[in-house]
Amino acid sequence: MKLQTLLQHLHSFTPLATENPTITSIEMDSREVKQGSLFVCIKGFTVDGHDFAEQAVARGAVAVVAEKPLALPVPVIYVNDSRRALAVLADAFYGQPTHHLHLIGVTGTNGKTTTTHLIERICRHAGKKTGLIGTINMKIGDDTYDVKNTTPESLILQNMFRKMVDAHVDIAAMEVSSHALHMGRVHGCDFDVAVFTNLTQDHLDYHQTMDHYRWSKGLLFAQLGNRFDHRRPKFAILNADDAASEEYKKSTAATVVTYGIHHKSDIMAKQIEITTSGTTFQLVTPIETVQVKTRLIGMFNVYNLLAAVGACLVSNIPLSTIVEAIADIEGVPGRFEVVDAGQPFTVIVDYAHTPDSLENVLQTIRQFAKKRVFVVVGCGGDRDRTKRPLMAQIAVKYSDVPIFTSDNPRSEDPLVILNDMKQGVAEDVVCIVDRKEAITYAIEQAEKDDIILIAGKGHETYQIIGKDVFHFDDRVVAREAIQRRKDK
């Protein structure tokens, strides 16, 4: 694509460069630049892309987008906000791919990963080719790709969507984080359906207040657009049992479909029965009322299922197909995942890393626990410190043996994090800084019919200590500890 063709999409009021080289790619990382690239200087939290512009040109960049003056031998396009310009340019360069997809975005504090996976599996069961972008990975059909952020930068997103369009994907589901919404990473994404799961405390290290956090989530619904188009209608799927939905309902012109358990909703779950083998409930919809059986356990998963049902119904998936698919779904990696190595006690790994999600999981476990409940839990470093004592209080309240340990301490001293957690409880608790030792301790102490919850990291296969990233998988560590105990 020619540079001038690309620049037409910026609609700038100030003169832009007049040169017209051919752009073969857009890059925001100078190390990825090749001959013919357009390099966009992005100011990040730790580095500034402007400092790498010369390096980008040396590697073959034929033009640069910047916010401040740069002395370079190639055209420099000056903009007020390079991150916003990046979203516009990426959308144009990749041919506005979301205009050719049915795109479902899911936001909320908890449940985003499970809900997007449920949507993806239901749509696959309906014979649709699907795409998925989220915390665990990106999927196009059966192919999977690694991702660095829950919601990638706009450049990466548009590249992913282009690949989906080229692969003839029908429906794509993606997690939309509050960070991504606030930073404009999803600018240019033409969502057809926006789903809200719930809002509880998290990410206050970034948002500072719950009001700002709630507002940031609401951007997904406000950005659905203000136009009515019966050929491509927009839908907002809102949790009627969460107070934030009232605000989101007012912020969108899209058709609102509600779901819930306690408040009257368009889609409801009634007569809910939860056992150790799964959950059954009566699914009430505007179409008909049907009985649902799922292997997923817990009230929080009933909410996730209702959200997925709403998204799929407005995406023209038949209700009968949705119910069939739900019955076949086994679960999502790292979400209430059972580690079974033949031991006489239960080990569950879950991503629960907020007060609300930890409470939900422990309450669910309490419903079928026969004996003691252990919980191995920590809190991430360089993240919201105010939730640390809350996590500790919940661990102590709902477990018999709380074990505090490290999560991803990052640049913080793990002992400082543990002390922050202990401020929330009066009782003496077991504190083991090394996460592997903490998991091993729990498994060594467990007896027949006890339950161990290993919380916080779920599907993650790494641990961040300082600036180093080490391989670490709670599921693997637990399985190895069980095997060592059996070998004794």
What can you see in these coordinates?
The chain has 488 residues and is of the alpha/beta class. It is 34% helix and 21% strand. The chain has an 11-stranded mixed beta sheet with strand order 8-7-6-9-5-10-11-12-13-14-15, sandwiched between helices. Strands 16-17-21-18-19-20 form a 6-stranded mixed beta sheet, sandwiched between helices. The chain has a 4-stranded parallel beta sheet with strand order 1-2-3-4. The radius of gyration is 24 Å and the shape is globular.
Kindly summarize this structure in a few lines.
The chain is built from 16 helices and 23 strands.
Q: What is the topology?
A:
Layout: H1 3-7, E1 25-27, E2 37-40, H2 53-58, E3 63-66, E4 76-78, H3 82-93, E5 102-107, H4 112-125, E6 130-133, E7 138-140, E8 143-145, H5 154-166, E9 171-175, H6 178-183, E10 193-196, H7 204-207, H8 210-222, E11 235-239, H9 244-251, E12 255-260, E13 267-275, E14 278-284, E15 289-294, H10 299-314, H11 319-328, E16 337-338, E17 346-350, H12 355-368, E18 373-377, H13 387-398, E19 401-404, H14 414-422, E20 430-431, H15 435-445, E21 451-455, E22 462-465, E23 468-471, H16 474-487
Parallel strand pairs: 1-2, 2-3, 3-4, 5-9, 5-10, 6-9, 10-11, 11-12, 12-13, 17-21, 18-19, 18-21, 19-20
Antiparallel strand pairs: 6-7, 7-8, 13-14, 14-15, 16-17, 22-23
Helix pairs in contact: 3-5, 4-10, 4-11, 8-9, 12-13, 13-14, 15-16
